[in-house]
TrEMBL record:
Signal sequence region: 1-18
Superkingdom of origin organism: Bacteria
One CC-aspect GO term: cell envelope
Compartment list: Cell envelope
Keywords: Signal
Pfam hit, one: Peripla_BP_4
Residue intervals of the Periplasmic binding protein domain: 59-314
Entry-linked Gene3D superfamilies: 3.40.50.2300
InterPro entries in UniProt: Peripla_BP_I, SBP_2_dom
Location of region: Disordered: 28-55
Family, per entry: Belongs to the bacterial solute-binding protein 2 family.
Name the record gives this protein: Substrate-binding domain-containing protein
Transmembrane segments: none
Amino acid sequence: MSRPIKHPFRLVSGVAVAALLVLTGCTSNSPDSEASGDGGGGDTKAVSANDDPGDTVTIGFSGPAADHGWLAAINSSALAEAEKYDDIELKTAEGTNDPSQQISQVETFINDKVDAIVLLPTDGAALTDIAIEAMDAGIPVINVDREFSSPFAARATILGDNYGMGVSAGTYACQVIDEKGIEDPVIAEIAGIDALPLTQDRSKGFKDALKACGQTVDNRVAAEFTVESGEEQASNLLQAAPKIDILWNHDDDQGVGVKAALDNAGRDEMTFIGGAGSCNAMDWIRDGSMAATVIYPPTQAADGIKLARLIAQDKGLSDLVQVEVPKRIVLNAPVVTADNVDEYSDLCFES
């Protein structure tokens, strides 16, 4: 989901107590370092150089169908991360949106006796039982992005912060309103699919953050995470709102359509905020046609691969005192602006 970097501007959501965890090995921790007697135990797993070669482990990876730029990046980043390690043998299943097919894929991993499974489920609830079956077989499961419905289904879970995205976007909007001295601002929101919990979380975070500066969303429409729906819903929104001061679009893939609608209507009066962190968004920030985007890391499965390797090799995170990989990691949702776009552009994805 990367190297530690200093951010000239970062908004940390109230929920993002789960701060961004850097999962790369800490080179200051020598492989032959030993824990002192004052360190809380004799186990030295957490003070190894995690990227040093270890026992070869077989990891099974099952991800989504790559029918969306962010989802394609999830898959490609996982494959690229595994290739960095000579001690990983990766078994990949074909990307799918069919829970039944994904269940069969996990059954194959279990039968193959892989050492760990990294799974971004098409449906967390539907994949819960088979994930528990893997765990019962002694195969640790790393759950990515969409949570299972039981705590017994995963050894570790790594997530983006949907609520935190909304909080970051809303906090940035409040900052813009204050810096520009906008009175009675008109705030608009283009959500994703309203039936999805992730969309509901993003909208709630946005609404909650706006309360801090006494603001509310004046106009809201919901698209479907596609370019076509983004353009259609943005056009409807622009017709309903002759003036907009702040516009937050939840998803940079559908943002291609949103941007087309804005350009077609000649509407450039607003502060345009995106979501997820596409390469298009990074380019628009550079040329000034978008003010900011809020990151939803497309590298979660890559981090899942790293965690699976550590768990299968009986290691911990070398940057933590704790000797085991945490049970749950929630990645931060930082705001990318012209001030820090170059620091995030290497992690962008193609829409």
